[in-house]
Design a protein that fits this description.
Elements lengths: L9 H69 L2 H24 L1
Length: 105
């Protein structure tokens, strides 16, 4: 024979509801903490990747700067005094024309 369930008294039902609410809130708090932890980890990974990219970019720029400097020093060594003088005169002529044009405006 099956006995019918006895309905809980109002006081007992309230206590049971409160316990269920506390358990549910505790589960939600744990899930929220886990989500926040994952978000922080992803943000840290993104920051690390950005820093590595920045460092790589800086290293490439430094390498380019050194290469340009080396090439410029080789070019300077290769030019004779006559070529240097000719280039200097061309530069002076271009500057003179440029400033004359500015004065004309």
């Amino acid at each position: 024979m099956i006995e019918p369930e006895v309905p809980l008294k109002r006081k007992d039902q309230i206590a049971l509801d409160e316990q269920i609410a506390r358990d549910t809130q505790a589960k939600l708090d744990v899930e929220l903490l886990e989500e926040q932890k994952l978000a922080r980890e992803k943000e840290e990974e993104a920051n690390i990747a950005l820093i590595e990219l920045w460092e790589n970019t800086q290293a490439m720029m430094e390498a380019d700067r050194l290469l340009v400097k080396r090439l410029q020093s080789k070019e300077r060594e290769e030019l004779t005094d006559e070529e240097k003088a000719k280039l200097f005169m061309e530069l002076m002529e271009k500057r003179r024309k440029h400033f004359a044009a500015l004065r004309a405006q």
